[in-house]
Amino acid sequence: MDKKKLIIGNMKMYMTSGDVKEYLQKLNLKNMNEQVVFCPSSIYIPYFLGYPFQVGAQNISATTLGAYTGEISAEQLASLGVAYTIVGHSERRMYFGEINEEVHQKMKRALDHHMVPIVCIGETLEEYNAGKTLSILRTQLIDCLTGLSLEEINKTVIAYEPIWAIGTGKIPTNLEIEKIAIEIKKILQEVFQSTNVPVLYGGSVSSKNIEQLEQITSIDGYLIGSASVKTKEIEKILEVVNH
Ligand code: PEP
User: Fold this and answer.
1) Could you tell me the distance, in angstroms and rounded to a whole number, from the CA of residue 67 to the centre of ligand 1?
2) Which domain holds residue 177?
3) Where residue 243 falls among pLDDT bands split at 50, 70, 90?
4) Which of 6, 45, 86, 151 could form a disulfide with 221 if both were Cys (CB 3.0 to 4.6 A apart)?
5) Residue 88 domain flag
6) What is the residue with the minimal CA distance to atom 6 of ligand 1?
7) Helical H runs in 113-226?
8) How confident is the model at residue 2 (pLDDT cuts 50, 70, 90)?
């Protein structure tokens, strides 16, 4: 039987505590399982624990426990039962100067505490138009993953998120996503001898395009931003993916 797709909700900084409580009251748990992961703002993580889905962080500290005001470490998240963390999201790269070296450190911290790092990679519109997508992805993968053991690489998840598709309503064609997911898997195999890493697609996934995206055979799930904070949207997406 096919492995269930991994569905990650990146809830960004969209909700207040009232919104979170209302969301969790309304959410239909019918299609929720261990392959569904919600990543709320860290202060709301405790609200999301104890459901049939898993919980992830949107970011973690590159350092271990210590005198780092305002940071949240992998130890702290893991001790709450947080199983995943997004690392290297393009918004962190763009607005907070996160570079591949830091993404690598964060992956290490997560893996050291048995959390799954969801590593975001993707090209800008300019790079896409210049035909540089694959070389950008290759560099990001090599810079983020080099130095990890094969066992560690096999515990990670890669999310291909073209930056120009995030929050814009524009998405690549199915053929483009298909080809890129295959290329990512090829790089992982050739450079790291890994054949075991799920590759997700992220960028403007919604209830309107999920049926179309489901035609793609080479992706292992989705990273979903704004649609994940609307219960009706995420429920519809899960309904389509699970049937
Ligand atoms: C994201 O930011 O990871 C994302 C996929 O956003 P959206 O779905 O809103 O485009």
Assistant:
1) 32
2) 6-242
3) confident
4) 6
5) yes
6) 225
7) 125-129, 133-145, 150-153, 174-192, 210-213
8) low
Q: Which residues form ligand 1's pocket by a CB distance below 6 Å?
A: 10, 161, 166-167, 202-205, 223-227
CB 85 within 8 A of CB 118: yes
Which CATH number belongs to the domain containing residue 143 in this structure?
3.20.20.70
CA gap 123, 135 in Å, rounded: 9
Asked if the structure places residue 91 within a domain, the reply is yes
Q: What is the DSSP letter of 214?
A: T
Q: For 162-178, what is each residue's pLDDT tens digit?
A: 999 999 999 999 999 99
82-136 pLDDT tens trace: 999 999 999 999 999 999 999 999 999 999 999 999 999 999 999 999 999 999 9
The number of domains in the chain is: 1
Of 91, 98, 152, 161, catalytic: 161
